[in-house]
Amino acid sequence: MSSERPINPRFDQDVHFDLVEPGPARYQTWTDKPVRYLTVVDKQGGAPLGYVWASDEDDAAAWVPCAAAGGRALAEGGHWHARLQDSKGQGVPPSQALADLFAHPEGNRGRVRPGPLADAPDSDAVKALAKGD
Question: What ranges does the record give for the region Disordered, renumbered to this chain (predicted)?
């Protein structure tokens, strides 16, 4: 009788690991710290499409579409989100990314509303503003 144990078929094959590259750099999408935000309005008529907010304290920034603007706001969000993602990939702090968006205000369907940046107590306050609460 042989002293060798039978090999479990699950362990009979070589193990192969794939190296998975990390995804693109992203800012946090929520913070309970104070944020600054800008309003993006529709180029046709000037209705709000959404808001871009940022906070350096939690390395957070995001686009929030206005519920009332529907699909137009969602479509426009891709432009602003991509610009934020590019800034994060270049190591730009959220507040500087927001300033860059403000300095180059044109989007696809919208543009940054002229005037000063606004302040909110946290990202949830901007989300509530976008919902119309």
Answer: 103-133
Closest CA to 61 of 2, 132, 117, 1: 117
Residue 81 lies in a domain: yes
In a domain, 127, yes or no: yes
> What is the three-class DSSP state of 50?
strand
Residue 16 lies in a domain: no
Asked whether residue 6 is domain-assigned, the answer is no
Query: Which residues have C-beta within 8 Å of that of residue 56, sequence separation ≥ 6?
Result: 93, 94, 95
Alpha helices in the chain (DSSP H): 70-89, 94-103, 123-131
- Which residues fall within 8 angstroms of residue 23, CB to CB, at 6 or more apart? none
Task: Name which of 51, 48, 52 is nearest 68 in CA terms.
Answer: 48
**Calpha distance 33→58 (Å, rounded):** 7
Each residue's pLDDT tens digit in the chain (133 positions)? 556 666 666 655 666 567 666 777 899 999 999 999 999 999 999 999 999 999 999 999 999 999 999 999 999 999 999 999 999 999 999 999 999 999 999 999 999 999 999 999 999 999 999 999 5
